[in-house]
Amino acid sequence: MPYVDGFIVAVAKDKLDDYTALAERARDVWMSHGALSYVEALADDVSVGELTSFPRAVHLKDDETVVFSWITYESREARDAINKKVMEDPRMKHDMENAPFDGKRLIYGGFKTFVEN
Question: Rounded CA gap, 100 and 15, in Å?
Fold first, then answer.
């Protein structure tokens, strides 16, 4: 079963075009280094929960929206090798230094798949 990196981030609505351009470049870089899939999804039906929710998790502001993303890999080992190449890829250097979101509110992590269709 594939290994998954998951991400949740708040993006200012007026920076969505910049974020989309970054996401498209990132997709191309990850895929060129061997990722199985790369998905970026924009919040559509996401409410603020009383205790927890996507908006609460990223401290969402009124002028922002939530982006939920994931990348799949053949294995944890493949993910580690691919991410090392991605972080060294010159196509990502500028984007990482000028990201159109607040990296302090980015939530991410790696997950072992245990149920899959």
Answer: 6
For the 3-111 domain, the top CATH level (class) is: alpha beta
Sequence-distant (6+) residues with CB within 8 A of 105 are: 9, 10, 58, 59
Q: Among candidates 60, 65, 54, 57, which has minimal Cα distance to 14?
A: 65
Helix (H) or strand (E) holding 71: strand 64-73
CA distances from 6 to 56, 63, 106, 111 (A): 17, 23, 10, 8
pLDDT in tens, 58-71: 999 999 999 999 99
